[in-house]
Predict the 3D structure of the following.
Amino acid sequence: MQKILMALINLSLSTWVIITFVSNLGAQETCSRSAIINYQEILIDTNSTQKGEGLRFYLEKDPTAIKYLDKYQEGAQIKWANIVMGTTGSLLTIGGLLVGGDSDDKKAMIIGGISLLIVNYLTAQTSYFGNERNLEKAIREYNYRNSPPIYYSPENTQKFKESPTQSRDIPLLYLNIARSF
């Protein structure tokens, strides 16, 4: 049982290292997110504190679009619940590894810590993707009623339609690279 537990711990730590490394490979892409307006490339994220601020000048023309942009910027703020869950999960896992012997407390701490880290990661990614939809909605609402149109596609497989009520083609499977300053 102990060998299986140690193998699971090694597997999860290896997975965490790989995910962290792959996530950092795309970190520079956030600074270069851009949209095309009037055949000019406009930076979407002009600074590290306000994501989407580069589009504010254009989106201010449409009250619905600016509401979605404000909602997007509020959602992009640091979430203390994720920080607390991640720290607690890490401390539980490390504490479980440092506890001597083969006690049930050690196993519970390790399994609880890893579980908390997985739940934290999944909730953070769900929140991130849900928040990115607010930026897409802001651009779609602006394009529906205003000119010049903003061309922006966060994924190569997603296509924006003219009407905000029409659906988009969404990939069934994609690799997420977390981008943040």
